[in-house]
């Protein structure tokens, strides 16, 4: 994708088509809050917002490069009333730019096609992929290359009654004087006969980008989105910068942790979208980011994500007979409903503290896989991880000085992050059918079950597993420290 060329033209508010001002649209450089900047030669009557007070608008433009629509636009700079000038300049900032037409926020789209970096690798060793060599994938037994001239199949998933997602290969042909280059890729397509708003399409594409970020171990972003309205008008969402993730698909380590050959695409995608909607804290903590967050704060965020996922899976478990009896006694003696609910919440939290949540989440990996990754017993890792989270959150020192041990803190974060990623994938429907023993996602009978060892996620898993025996030693050191303090 080339750089955006600034354009001049006439611009107006979507709700005021008769009031048009000349303006200059450009892409902002650097990491700004919003990527688009529109400088208008004049100001709209009855200005819809004041600089500093955000009131988002939709602006239309007519330029030599065609029609544009700016969505999420707000006035960022206006003329000062202290100076008397013939023409006043106003500057608008916007979040999204559409090229090819004028559409409002409620415009329904019948189809949206977009890409995610490295999407072709997600197709995996199936007949969907028209050019990838079978031998480069561990799943070559499921490879079924289409015959010459045969239309490749596309995967499909029903998101709701009228909304469907399809995935399939794509190609482009470039002819030159001395060359004939054909490149291959893959695209997602969201279709709806009744039409769907851009807001929903953006949410779906963002959720899929998060999925790809987890399985590739690198930040990802959807790009090159093309929209078709229910009236057959075609628009393009202009990308403000090169999409995050392009480097991954061009690096040597470019295998995802799993691909479509290892999941039931039809059921996996809706379940994943449901997790993104119901558990945004968990998904956000699992998605790799290009940031400089301290490892300690990242660990707290990851534990919050693990707790959210655990609550999603098991919070509906009934109370014990003894706990129900206690609540009934409180009711019989006249304790009000609010206080009884507070006691009920406390009972749940005491019965299922963070350590127990971590142990139960580790179980989704399979017994041998969990021990390979987190050591034996897994409870040692869970106890120390819970203690570290409580130490960081509440400001008290860990026994044995473990909170100051860099390797301990880094390993705790890595282990928690990999567990969260795998538990989310498992919750969406990944069960690793390659495993000779059902339920073992990573390891069984002394050998790896992972079909994609050349992936960033599995590389991180091996780092955690390499240090798995350290948890018992750290726990013993903490216990010895506690015993020494008690004796003194």
Description:
The protein is of the alpha+beta class and 488 residues long. Helices cover 37% and strands 22% of the residues. The protein contains 14 helices and 15 strands. The strands form 2 sheets. A 6-stranded antiparallel beta barrel has the order 1-2-3-6-5-4. Strands 14-15 form a two-stranded antiparallel sheet. The longest helix is centred in the last third of the chain and has 23 residues, at 406-428. It is globular. Residues 134-141 have low confidence and may be disordered.
Number of strands: 15
pLDDT < 50 runs, ≥5 residues: 134-141
- Approximate shape: globular
Count up the helices: 14
Major sheet: 6 strands, antiparallel, barrel
As laid out across the biggest beta sheet, the strand order is 1-2-3-6-5-4
The residue-averaged pLDDT reads 85
> What structural class do you assign from the helix and strand content?
alpha+beta
Rg value: 27 Å
User: What pattern of helices and strands is seen along the backbone?
Assistant: EEEEEEEEHEEEHEEHHHHHHHHHHEEHH
Beta fraction = 15-25%
Helix content: 25-40%
Measured between the Cα atoms of the first and last residue, the distance is 68 Å
Task: Summarize this structure briefly.
This protein is an alpha+beta fold. It has helices at 119-123, 198-216, 246-249, 265-278, 280-286, 295-314, 321-332, 337-351, 354-362, 367-374, 378-394, 406-428, 456-466, 470-487, and strands at 7-13, 21-27, 36-41, 57-63, 66-77, 89-94, 96-99, 109-115, 155-158, 163-175, 180-196, 223-229, 234-237, 443-444, 447-448.
């Amino acid at each position: 994708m080339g750089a955006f060329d600034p354009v001049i033209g006439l611009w107006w508010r979507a709700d005021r088509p008769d009031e048009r001002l000349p303006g200059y649209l450009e892409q902002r450089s650097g990491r700004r809050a919003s990527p688009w900047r529109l400088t208008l030669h004049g100001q709209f009557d009855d200005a819809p917002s004041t600089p500093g007070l955000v009131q988002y608008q939709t602006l239309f433009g007519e330029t030599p490069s065609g029609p544009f629509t700016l969505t999420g636009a707000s006035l960022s700079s206006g003329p000062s009333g202290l100076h008397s000038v013939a023409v006043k300049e106003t500057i608008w900032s916007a979040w999204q730019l559409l090229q090819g037409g004028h559409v409002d926020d409620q415009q329904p789209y019948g189809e949206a096609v977009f890409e995610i970096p490295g999407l072709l690798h997600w197709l995996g060793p199936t007949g969907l992929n028209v050019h990838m060599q079978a031998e480069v994938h561990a799943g070559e037994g499921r490879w079924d290359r289409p015959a010459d001239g045969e239309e490749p199949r596309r995967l499909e998933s029903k998101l709701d009654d009228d909304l469907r997602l399809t995935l399939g290969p794509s190609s482009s042909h470039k002819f030159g004087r001395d060359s004939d280059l054909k490149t291959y890729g893959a695209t997602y397509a969201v279709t709806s006969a009744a039409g769907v708003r851009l807001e929903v399409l953006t949410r779906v594409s963002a959720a899929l980008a998060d999925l790809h970020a987890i399985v590739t171990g690198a930040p990802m972003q959807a790009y090159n989105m093309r929209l078709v309205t229910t009236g057959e008008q075609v628009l393009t969402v202009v990308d403000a910068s090169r999409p995050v993730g392009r480097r991954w698909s061009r690096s040597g380590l470019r295998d995802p942790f799993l691909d479509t050959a290892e999941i039931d695409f039809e059921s996996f995608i809706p379940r994943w979208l449901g997790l993104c909607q119901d558990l945004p804290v968990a998904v956000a903590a699992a998605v790799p980011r290009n940031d400089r967050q301290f490892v300690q704060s990242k660990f707290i965020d990851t534990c919050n994500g693990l707790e959210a996922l655990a609550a999603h899976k098991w919070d509906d478990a009934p109370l014990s007979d003894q706990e129900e009896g206690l609540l009934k006694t409180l009711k019989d003696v006249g304790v009000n409903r609010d206080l009884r609910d507070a006691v009920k919440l406390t009972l749940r939290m005491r019965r299922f503290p963070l350590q127990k949540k971590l142990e139960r989440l580790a179980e989704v990996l399979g017994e041998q896989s969990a021990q390979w990754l987190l050591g034996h017993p897994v409870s040692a890792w869970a106890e120390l991880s819970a203690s570290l989270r409580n130490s960081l959150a509440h400001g008290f020192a860990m026994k044995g000085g473990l909170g100051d041990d860099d390797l301990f803190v880094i390993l705790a974060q890595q282990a928690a992050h990999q567990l969260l990623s795998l538990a989310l994938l498992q919750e969406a429907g990944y069960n690793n059918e390659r495993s000779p023993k059902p339920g073992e996602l990573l390891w069984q009978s002394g050998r790896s079950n992972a079909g994609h060892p050349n992936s960033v996620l599995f590389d991180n898993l091996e780092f955690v597993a390499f240090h798995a025996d350290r948890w018992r030693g750290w726990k013993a050191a903490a216990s010895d420290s506690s015993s020494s303090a008690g004796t003194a």
